[in-house]
Amino acid sequence: MPDNAVESHSQIQLYADERLARYGFSDGHPFGRDRQAAFLRAAEDQGLLDRVQRLGARAGDEFQAKLFHDDDYVDFVAERSRAGTGYLDSGDTPAESGIYEAALDVVGTAVAAADALMHGDCRRAFLPIGGLHHAARDGASGFCVFNDCGVVIEHLKRQYGLQRVAYVDIDAHHGDGVYYGFEDDPALIFADIHEDGRFLFPGTGRAGESGRGAADGAKLNLPLAPGAGDREFFEAWAEVEDFLESWQPEFILLQCGADPLAGDPITHLRYSAAAHYHASLSLARIADRHAQGRLLATGGGGYNRENIGIAWSAVLKALIESGSSR
User: Fold this and answer.
1) For residue 7, pLDDT beyond 60
2) What region holds the Histone deacetylase domain (predicted)?
3) For residue 177, what are the CA distances in angstroms to 136, 142, 220, 248, 314?
4) Which residues are CB-contacts of 106 (< 8 A; sequence separation ≥ 6)?
5) Are β-strands 165-169 and 219-224 bridged in parallel, bridged antiparallel, or unpaired?
6) Engineered SS bond to 260: which of 150, 189, 196, 271, CB 3.0-4.6 Å?
7) Which of 131, 152, 146, 33 is CA-nearest to residue 81?
8) How far is CA 59 from CA 64, 101, 106, 132, 300, in A?
9) Which CATH architecture does the domain made up of 3-324 adopt?
10) Tell me, what's the pLDDT at 9?
11) Among residues 30, 122, 119, which one has the least CA distance to residue 322?
12) CA 260/CA 314 separation, integer angstroms
């Protein structure tokens, strides 16, 4: 294999294995444990898996989870997971046996991916079973037990002293756990395009929500009407690009949920995978300009298995093309 092929291969890390696939729920739950496999089949069919460095789960621990989450909540999850019954919230997120360990694996892997980017071991990384953006500091929500994105943001601030971490969310649902977890933190640059909360869970993310106190103006929420498609997304994305360029982030974290694609059983947006490809490629270029190429993508939601394969393959393709072009 030519040296340049080896180099481009090592630029992109993909974290996906059977341990990460354990994060999910049984009995026909929308967030089932087959979601990673749906993506891998599509990526394999497109020849993408041969062009990345494939890595597996990295074990997380309670100390990492507690970077973002309250101690009592982390202990509560451990206790309820051992019991293996009931819910961690009002009825969306089951307390199934082993969910504590599975959620910690997602956290540990996300932190490991962030470290790899910070150490220069790769230029882009993708964690399909990640992006659990609804979990609050003190509770589960919307299928999300531990907020790996929130943990990574805290880790980057504390371990590396970063002062401008950008979190960009294109999931159909508003990233409320991240937004409210850092609403008054000016170090977190937040941009979120989502279905209007008047029509979809969690009901938040109004256009006027731009941060509080010292962070006022560091957050951008762009709600779209039900039925919005690529045209509306691309119009909103132009605002995201201008916003990020003005802040010059040192690290970019993308939550690329597949649920805005037409045909998702839970949401009402109508994107094609062109939205995910364009957003990922655009963020990679911004990362090259301002963040030494450091871009970590996490999968997030998506409940139509075919759409998961289409959307996340588009993300991975963009990461590969952007990382290999240098």
Assistant:
1) no
2) 29-319
3) 5, 10, 15, 23, 26
4) 20, 23, 60, 127, 129, 130, 132, 146, 148
5) unpaired
6) 271
7) 146
8) 10, 8, 8, 17, 19
9) 3-Layer(aba) Sandwich (3.40)
10) 59
11) 122
12) 14
